[in-house]
Design a protein that fits this description.
14 helices; binds zinc ion; alpha/beta; Aminopeptidase; Glucose Oxidase, domain 1; two-stranded antiparallel sheet; single chain
């Protein structure tokens, strides 16, 4: 067959249509099969699928068994897993953080006022009368001529920073992309930048709207074990204390420091903002137990016929929060039906649909990551230890949280305007009278909150499309209501359970069909999707 290396997505789509696209049998995504996998993965028996637990052992075994049963080859040599060496640090932080130096001494209360942990694998780590500095958004962005740390020596100082970025709420899309959160807005970026600055600590000021979720989400981290990659032997500087401040506690701090918190939030958005020493000193003690162990990415493949060295990667993280704090019903198992048993079941469904077709030209890889909830660690490890060369990786199609509320006319692309894959999706959607929609909350920075982000960070075009809110029967308002209900009542709570009566999987099946049309199309084409000219990932060489 004639093969032409084409760059633009839409042309790729054209090529797909012309090449040996097999006929599309009806119902490639039967909902009973999706339901069967979700039932198992989101069951109490799988204990909320936390790494390093029996929940992990059961989940990884189940996924391997399913991929074998579907007829997929091991994706990592002769293994269906990639070991991910990790450290688990359980930080028990003293429940009071005394603050001195202000109009009156303050005693902040752990979990209610602050969340604090450490990535230093030492038995005891202390903040000792360390000075707090308000560093605005805590951003260093050369492309915007922005440096909140300019002229600052952060040694033995704690950076107090605002969540989101200076463009938040604005409509000037040339300034930090306006209301769409840039990576600078993510709490992970704030901690990473403070670490680069050699700070003793970094506390992100929580605020529900700019953060995109309530303080209950960071609270899950209070005195709970947290995971990170095992970097023994290549140790780098780590802050002593990392965490969050509640908005209310922050107000108290600024009052004690005699500073106008509201005014400084406004000033922090202006070019030339200068950090403000708060003349307050914080102390805290963290007692840590450290465990080193391996968690596992699950990886399976179907080898391509004509171009086996080129790969298309579908992904979905299998992990969730495990067993934790009881909810009002006394339920402590965080089943993670939506997050992300739905995406993982979707991955298995895509695998079945792929084997039901003639073999593709390119190799198709199915990757189910560990430790996404803990910091996207499974995908971070994969892209720094890729099984398939990144330069030969055509695209990543990631699934995280499929929608339970049924068929929709739209499918939402998170991070619209990033790369050509959305054009492929748009073409596939148009064929079934559906349309691609923007994410309803671009300020929430969802593009940085799942595993495709690590592919983007190394220059591999990544598509993260999910749900839709334009409900096929009940319209947009209904869909929007369903979405905010899920975020408010079930996201990262024990109530995120799989109830077949509540979960309308026909919407999930429809979306899988579209993602399959994109992925399967690419696996039978010579197209190389590209990043858009406005994308912050376009210049990354891989
Ligand atoms: Zn997730």
């Amino acid at each position: 067959m004639f093969r032409l290396s084409l760059s633009t997505g839409c042309l790729g789509v054209l090529l797909v249509a012309l090449s040996c696209k097999p006929t599309t049998p009806d119902n490639q995504f039967p909902t009973d099969a999706i339901a069967a996998d979700m039932k198992v993965l989101a069951s109490d028996d799988f204990q909320g699928r936390r790494p390093f637990t029996d929940g992990e052992t059961k989940t990884v075994a189940y996924l391997q068994q399913q991929f074998k049963a579907i007829g997929f080859e091991p994706g990592n040599g002769d293994s269906y897993v990639q070991a991910v060496p990790m450290a688990e640090i359980t930080t028990m932080t003293d429940s009071v953080m005394p603050i001195t130096g202000g109009k009156q001494p303050l005693r902040l209360s752990g979990r209610r006022d602050f969340i604090l942990w450490t990535d230093r694998p030492e038995p005891e780590v202390k903040l000792e009368q360390d000075e707090l500095v308000f560093v605005g958004f805590g951003v260093v962005a050369p492309e915007y001529g922005w440096n909140d740390y300019a002229g600052l020596d952060m040694k033995n100082k704690i950076a107090v920073v605002l969540v989101n970025d200076p463009g938040f709420g604005g409509d000037d899309t040339t300034f930090f992309k306006g209301n769409t959160m840039t990576y600078y807005g993510r709490w992970t970026y704030k901690h990473e930048e403070a670490t680069r600055q050699g700070a003793k600590g970094c506390l992100v000021i929580h605020n529900t709207v700019p953060a995109g979720y309530g303080f209950n989400v960071p609270q899950v981290a209070w005195n709970n074990p947290h995971l990170l990659l095992d970097d023994r032997g290549q140790e780098s500087y780590k802050c002593a204390g990392l965490g969050w401040l509640s908005y209310e506690a922050t107000q108290q701090l600024f009052d004690a420091a005699g500073l106008d918190f509201r005014q400084l939030q406004t000033d922090a958005r202006k070019p030339g903002f200068k950090a403000v020493p708060m003349k307050l000193k914080a102390s805290a003690t963290m007692h840590n137990t450290v465990r080193y162990n391996q968690s596992y990415n699950v990886i399976a493949k179907i080898t391509g016929t004509t171009h086996p060295d080129e790969v298309v990667i579908y992904s979905a993280h299998w992990d969730h929060l495990g067993i934790g704090k009881k909810d009002e019903k006394g339920d402590s198992i965080y089943n993670g039906a939506g997050d992300n048993a739905s995406g993982t079941a979707g991955l298995l469904a895509l695998a079945r649909a792929t084997t039901a077709q003639p073999k593709p030209d390119r190799t198709v890889v199915f990757l189910s990551f560990t430790a996404e909830e803990q910091g996207l660690w499974g995908s971070a490890y994969y892209v720094s230890h890729p099984v398939y060369p990144l330069a030969k990786t055509v695209a990543n199609i990631n699934m995280d949280m499929m929608n339970p509320w049924g068929k929709t006319k739209d499918i939402v692309v998170i991070g619209i305007g990033q790369n050509d894959l959305e054009d492929n999706l748009r073409a596939a959607a148009a064929k079934v009278n559906r349309y691609v929609a923007r994410e309803p909350s671009p300020q929430a920075g969802l593009y940085f909150r799942s595993d495709h982000f690590h592919f983007a960070k190394v220059g591999v075009p990544a598509l993260f499309a999910t749900g839709g809110i334009d409900h096929a029967e009940k319209g947009i308002e209904y869909g929007r209501q369903q979405q905010s209900d899920f975020t408010a009542k079930r996201y990262h709570r024990p109530s995120d359970e799989f109830d077949p009566a509540l979960w309308h999987l026909d919407g999930v099946a429809d979306n899988l069909q579209l993602l399959f049309n994109v992925g399967d199309g690419l696996s039978r084409s010579a197209a190389w999707p590209q990043w858009k000219p406005t994308s912050e990932f376009k210049d990354i060489k891989r």
